[in-house]
């Protein structure tokens, strides 16, 4: 967290700090100066817009927020108008009781773009954000100009996701249930979303008109064969597997990841 203060002690008195004038600096995903809410499908979606140029929509992963892209923000923002969006019930966006599906969240994004009168946007989706982006681009080809997706799945089974991942998810869900966590708790709902969704048919990707960069790490939670299937089904696609990388490539190999995305969008 970035802070600024006029009164910071130094040397052996550094433990005695007057925090009375400390101000939290605005950060991506937590910037009241540019942040806005918009009513979409019964919830309030939080978004932030920065800069000039072609719009680039950032779609984050499960139980996260736009702030997950903090290492992409500066590099991508040099060329694109950055639109950060928190998915329903995550970040600063509000939830409701509607059953949570990726189709619903893709419809949220489509309605969001309609309300902002945006078409032909570039999209970067990571993990759940990639799932949402694929559905959006397949169902509404006019909305997406170019797309880059990282660690995306069409469905969760033994052919797409490593069994250890689902074993861990089941353990986490059981632990939540043992603690008496309510089934309408958003953390619980998001775990169940990972286990039970998505349900994207591979041939649905044939409808995608946007040139698409399909990325995954060599050691991703998504099996490489599944990532290759996604790239094969999207008519105009490029496949990149980051050697030595994993599902967290955007934060762990940031320079390479950002360059790969920018080179493709250019």
TrEMBL record:
Residues 55-174 form the AB hydrolase-1 domain. InterPro entries: AB_hydrolase_1, AB_hydrolase_fold. GO terms for molecular function: serine hydrolase activity. PANTHER family: VALACYCLOVIR HYDROLASE. This is AB hydrolase-1 domain-containing protein. It comes from Flavobacterium akiainvivens.
């Amino acid at each position: 967290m970035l802070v600024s203060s006029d009164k910071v002690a130094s040397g052996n008195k550094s433990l005695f700090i007057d925090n009375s004038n400390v101000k939290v600096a605005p950060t991506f995903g937590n910037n009241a100066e540019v942040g806005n809410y918009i009513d979409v499908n019964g919830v309030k979606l939080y978004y932030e817009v920065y800069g000039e140029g072609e719009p680039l929509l950032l779609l984050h992963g499960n139980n996260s927020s736009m702030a997950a892209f903090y290492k992409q923000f500066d590099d991508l923002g040099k060329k694109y108008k950055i639109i950060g969006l928190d998915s329903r019930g995550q970040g600063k966006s509000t939830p409701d009781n509607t059953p949570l599906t990726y189709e619903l969240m893709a419809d949220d994004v489509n309605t969001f773009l309609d309300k902002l009168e945006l078409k032909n946007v570039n999209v970067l989706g990571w993990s759940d954000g990639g799932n949402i982006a694929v559905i959006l681009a397949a169902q509404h080809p006019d909305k997406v100009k170019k797309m880059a997706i990282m660690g995306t799945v069409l469905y969760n089974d033994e052919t797409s996701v490593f069994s250890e991942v689902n074993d861990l998810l089941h353990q986490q869900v059981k632990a939540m249930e043992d603690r008496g966590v309510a089934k309408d708790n958003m953390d619980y709902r998001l775990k169940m979303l990972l286990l039970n969704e998505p349900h994207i048919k591979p041939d649905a990707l044939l409808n995608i008109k946007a040139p698409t960069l399909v990325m995954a790490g060599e050691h991703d939670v998504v099996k490489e064969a599944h990532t290759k299937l996604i790239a094969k089904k999207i008519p105009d696609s490029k496949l990149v597997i980051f050697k030595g990388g994993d599902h967290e490539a955007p934060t762990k190999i940031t320079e390479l990841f950002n360059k790969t995305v920018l080179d493709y969008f250019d």
